[in-house]
Amino acid sequence: MQPIIAMPQMGNDLFRKYMKSKYVQSLARAGAVVRWIDGQDPQKAAREAAACDGLLLPGGADIAPERYGQPPTENSGKPNAIRDEAEWQMLAAFLDTGKPVFAICRGMQFVNVFFGGTLFQDIKEKQQYRHMDFFSRASSCHPVSIEPNSLLYRLWQTEKTEVNSMHHQAIDTLGKGLRVSAKSGDGFAEAIETPEYPFLLGVQWHPEHMSRKSEQQQRLFDAFVRECANR
């Protein structure tokens, strides 16, 4: 039986359908199917998500800065308050189950905020590499270093790689209980995890756009789905 992966609904315009398809294809190659969760009723969304085998928090709009105790700056994007609340309740319910969580881009930032961390609302003045490069999404645009003795290292068996990048925000203060398991060449958190939970992995890049050609990136989805099946 294929594991069922809960994902918050991202919208159904042509662009979002394209973005959603990359997650679906990557998970299908790993042997899983997606259940899209409508967030209009956050409590219902939380119940529906918790009934699935895994939770994938995808990319999307900036998180409301009020969630991490800051006023919005002029470079902070417009948040989606309904999605923020639905994902908050979905993640809370899911963590109570002990089932696997995989978080990508905004999803990684959301996990950090959920655990009490904060974000840089815009990194353009701090970055040394391009971190918003949509047109290189199927290849790579900057290096990352990976911490030994991390989940990510165990999956990849390397301390160096290169990834794509499509974000203008990044982790500032790390959430309680989390650890940074990869960093960009200019020092931003590129992956997080926690030893306090069976499987929780967040990555700042978009492996779903690289996974068709990159066995390394597909391995992230394979490991996630394998954990979902085992639990």
Account of the 3D structure:
The chain has 231 residues and is of the alpha/beta class. The protein has a single domain (4-230), classed as 3-Layer(aba) Sandwich (Rossmann fold). The chain has helices at residues 14-29, 42-50, 81-97, 106-114, 151-156, 215-230, and strands at residues 4-8, 33-37, 54-57, 101-104, 119-120, 142-146, 160-163, 170-171, 179-184, 189-193, 200-203. The strands form two sheets. The protein has a nine-stranded mixed beta sheet with strand order 2-1-3-4-11-10-9-6-7, with helices on both faces. A two-stranded antiparallel ribbon has the order 5-8. Strand 3 (54-57), helix 3 (81-97) and strand 4 form a beta-alpha-beta unit. The mean pLDDT is 96.
- Helix segment count? 6
Unreliable residue runs: none
Strand residue content: 15-25%
Number of structural units classed as domains: 1
How does the major sheet shape up?
9 strands, mixed
- As a whole number of angstroms, the C-alpha radius of gyration is 16 Å
Average of the residue pLDDT scores: 96
CATH topology: Rossmann fold
